[in-house]
Amino acid sequence: MTLRKAFIYTTVVFALITLFSYIANAQPRQLSLREALSLAMANNREIRISSLDVDHSKQQVQVAKSAGLPSAGISAQLSHYFYEAPFFGIGTTGSSDKISYDRFGGRDQASANAWITQPVYNAAIKPGIINAKLQERQSQLSVIDRETDIAALLKQTYIRILVLHERIKLQHESLARNEKALQDARSLLAQGRALRVDTLRAYTSVKNLEPDLLKLSYAIEVGKQQLRTLTGLDSLQDIELTDALVLPETSPLLSEEAVLTEAKVHRADLQSLDLQQLRADQQIRIAAAGMKPSVSLTAQYLIQTQTNHFEYFNAFYPSTPFVGAQVTVPVFNGNSNKAKVKQARIVKDQSVLRSQQANEELKTAVKQAVANVRETAARIKTSANVKETARLSYEITQYRYAKAVASRLELTDAELAYTQAQSNYLEAVYDYLSANIEIERTMGLSGK
To answer: Which of 261, 270, 325, 349 is buried most deeply by CB count within 10 Å?
Structure first.
């Protein structure tokens, strides 16, 4: 009976947990643009990968510093020989050319050794530390660059979804107008006051709008999935955007020179290319260090013993301590070091060319970004005027149709033009906002 109660209790608890989880996922999460950016900076996997590169680089700095620090160790060895160790040259050889030998010592031998080494001079240590620190800074700049790209992509995706919602509203309004027109056409056809072709045309207009609604709905779902991926949210979590589509106040357009200046100051990828040149200089020094001598101090304390029958507690333990200095002078290694220096210099030349190429590409990107902002700003004004004109034309045509002055075809064309003008205006708004986000990204401003 107790086992049955435990089973029922476990089943009920599991069912409640499943139900609460379903309810939690069924409730759409309210998500503002600011909150989405905050989530992306904290949970985006690409940013987290770049952040781990920073931690990796910090450890590399410690590795580089350790080359100049003392190293110490302890070792021990225990051996059992089946015969005593042989010593040659003991005794007389007689007429034979063979070297005589004899066996001495114990069959059981043990030793313990403690040592410490301190590098005094190594030309590769300092440039190695500088190179590791530059690499760490490059990793930090990579995180900033990734954050800038992710923030720009997230804002564009968020705004795109808002535009799609507005377009769905327009399609529903257009669908309602066309359904009303279809009802009117059917009524007039039944009264014998309209042609059957008017009814067919109205029916066709209604059906043509339905695939567009389905397409827009799917586009919203895809956009939300991309938002969930960027922000690190659960892929099953439904989200609801809380911000509204707002056209910002018109601000003075930045010149290409101003954008280029800001980009050179804030672009993390350009700063990383500059650091790559500095790293190349240090790598040349590291390669050249292989042709220079190195000096180190060493100290050792050695204890040895020999015995038989494992009688280590009844044996002598003589010690052999010593200190010394070691100087290593490379003489010839097949020109390997010279080749490494040449390789490092080639890498330096490549980094210089990459930096020059990136700056030239930046000029093109700045020109394109500024042109996009100017073009979309002008298109918004034109689209707003066209939308207002199309609305007025539709209202006039609708009035004329009610007075039997305009035809059904004229009303259908006016409604289609009005809907298209509204849609074009929304696209112009999105393109303008997206262009401003892109120009921020071009300048290296994440806008978090």
So the answer is: 270
